[in-house]
Amino acid sequence: MGKKRIYLNAFEMNCVGHQSPGLWTHPEDRSHQYKDSEYWIELARILEKGRFDAVFLADVLGTYDVYNGSRDAAIRQGAQSPVNDPLLVVPLMSAVTKHLGFGVTASVSHEHPYTFARRMSTLDHLTKGRVGWNIVTSYLKSAALNIGQEKQISHDERYDIASEYLDVCYKLWEGSWEDDAVKVDKENGIYTDPKKVHDINHEGKYYKIPGAHLSEPSPQRTPVLFQAGASKKGRSFAVGNAELVFIGAPTINAAKHTVKKLREDAAKAGRNPDEIKILTMVTPVIGRTEEEALAKYKEYQKHISYEGALALFGGWTGVDLAGYDLNESLEYVENNAIRSTLESFTKTDPDKKWTVEEIAKSIGVGGMGTAVVGTPEQIADSLEEWIEEAGVDGFNIAYAISPGTFKDFAEYVVPVLQERGRVPKEYEGTTLRDNLFAKGDQLPAHHPGKKYSKVKQPI
Amino acid sequence: MGKKRIYLNAFEMNCVGHQSPGLWTHPEDRSHQYKDSEYWIELARILEKGRFDAVFLADVLGTYDVYNGSRDAAIRQGAQSPVNDPLLVVPLMSAVTKHLGFGVTASVSHEHPYTFARRMSTLDHLTKGRVGWNIVTSYLKSAALNIGQEKQISHDERYDIASEYLDVCYKLWEGSWEDDAVKVDKENGIYTDPKKVHDINHEGKYYKIPGAHLSEPSPQRTPVLFQAGASKKGRSFAVGNAELVFIGAPTINAAKHTVKKLREDAAKAGRNPDEIKILTMVTPVIGRTEEEALAKYKEYQKHISYEGALALFGGWTGVDLAGYDLNESLEYVENNAIRSTLESFTKTDPDKKWTVEEIAKSIGVGGMGTAVVGTPEQIADSLEEWIEEAGVDGFNIAYAISPGTFKDFAEYVVPVLQERGRVPKEYEGTTLRDNLFAKGDQLPAHHPGKKYSKVKQPI
């Protein structure tokens, strides 16, 4: 058996300065060009040349407004604000690539599953089967308010809604149109055999959809399912459905802890724990020499916006650190909310005292993930260590500066990982799912989504 | 003063056989390739080379199921079924063009205005200001049911919802972010000045949106507003907001009637009647000689699917013609619903008796519009006649076969129209609005949408 393969996603968002708040001020950063199609086209070419498996597009439908009780910090620092729609850059990127996959974030709270299912089928057709869906339930209160939800739905109920939403999508994607429904029979004038198109007759607690799917079957039918979920409900949702799970952890120890939990839950849910691929977030800072890399890292740190970092932290955790001094150590803060939301930081080393400044700095280059700094070989060493020690399967590569970080990683680190047998030299499948798992284009027969399929599945 | 300019839209839809049911069986038709990005990329190149102003993408969110009380006919004949999302082909087409505009159909019943406004701003950014929005209120019962509306909202109330929906969009697009809000000031670390981003505080009958727009201002802010509306409420909505109105009429007389009404209503609403550009639908059948064109037309007619045509007719009018003989004349049908919905046909010539077959044939090549058949010069003559006699400003060019019809029109008819001074030789603006009206990128100062602008408008 060869070495464990490393999966690589590029982590992006249709906004400025995705995970490294303030680094948009770096002279080489071009993430403020997110509005231009040219930016996305160039990025797609870089990533496919670098044999990334996919680009993972994050999204929020609100502005981070916990810090200091206001959205001003996020807006001023460009901390994921303004933010554009992620779906619409996918056709651009797919037009100049043949293999790169696209994981698109879309919340189950914000669009009806009937229209959403058509959007994803359309994308899967246009990309010839290269689409993934990062299922989120949305966590920003400002988003809930703006789409008319008087108060935000409780965390647990959001997962119940998500489960039914997913069921509706499965029925539309897997169960509505049979494989051979569409004939395009010009001779006999039959485009589709209506007997092979089925109403889904869904009547649930949250949705009622009597009809059939609007789109004909796309190459993957159900897009590859991505999920990020650190909470208990989130984990159980993830292990039940997701094919790729994304975590963020500032250290190997913290990641190890989450990976262990996820695989245990997967086993309990009756899934093969290794079938779920777990990717953690990493921001590489690459130099030709170690000194060069460290100098670069130091230079990047000068561009960190503490205000932007704490605005992001507030949105992610619900905790407002505006009232604390930068050098205040959070271990001593008598605040249970902070204690529990800092879990992923404190898990690192229970004895370590994180100051507000240290948290801001950690987020500043690499967000909720970690920065790895060094030569291409050192970065490769470090990634291999994460794979072996924490048990993750790969990485969401976030950028410090864009597209610079992606370009450096693709040019210098990927060849080393390929040399070491960790990353395949060529793409192996045509669809995203086949490329990732080499077991065909569609959901595996035993996946919960396949139970709605009209085709008898050999298990 | 020169001759009246002719505006040209290509009329398309993300489906097979858009307006000419059954013609997808023609050996040269490639509309079944709507699923492939290559189809849209090729089409965009043809249209920009042919100096079309825009491509107008229609949409439905349901299946035509009035005919024979079933959706089977529409599905079997591929009559606008299956149908994919229209927005997602726009980035593809914009990536290979610089001037072509994109009118995208989106219903106000099916997505929350807060998320929709962001989608359109995103498209306007990515296309550098080339997006139009065809505002529809949706007419298919199957669509209403599938998105959870127990019974379809009444026609009049739909227009009330549409009005408020549009108001929300105007507030987000025009009133939320000031022109100079976004600084991208790397030196001082200010991406956006939060004082120049405003909550819209919308509280209406149907929507409540406290927050600010998620996207920064796009080149046009509000996309160019398209509308099709033949009903009284539809007309009043159109004349209040639309910049481009689309009509369908089988004859010059029928079009003349509608154009007159529209301009009268516009004047009553206090708008300059000529400010609203009215486009009617035409399907050109072009030959090098008249004989060749007529032979082509005859050949096309052989491919008409009556079943498909009557399925479309049922969806458009709500009238099921399944029980009637093909040679039955509808003048004699004692059915008021048919009488009134046939208005646009009977208006042509009050003494003419339309048989079911004639209706099917008329729809068969050219849908609710008309076919014009002849040499490039004859087609140009005919279009000029429509412009002068019916008072329309231009045409939605539908296809008999795709992309063949568009290719022929672009190659052979457009040069004649350019020679005659009806179609400009070059694109004149960079944004769609500027290209159409040559008065800047954004809504004119006196347009109702501009009342939410933070900039004092010189009227």
TrEMBL record, chains A, B:
Keywords: Flavoprotein, FMN, Monooxygenase, Oxidoreductase. Residues 439-459 are annotated as: Disordered. One of its GO terms (molecular function) is nitrilotriacetate monooxygenase activity. FMN binds at residues 59, 105, 155, 159, 231. The keyword Ligase does not apply. Pfam families: Bac_luciferase (PF00296). Residues 447-459 have a biased composition (Basic residues). Its EC number is 1.14.14.10. The keyword Oxidoreductase applies. Residues 29-393 form the Luciferase-like domain. NCBIfam families: FMN_nitrolo. Belongs to the NtaA/SnaA/DszA monooxygenase family. This is Monooxygenase. It comes from Lederbergia lenta (Bacillus lentus).
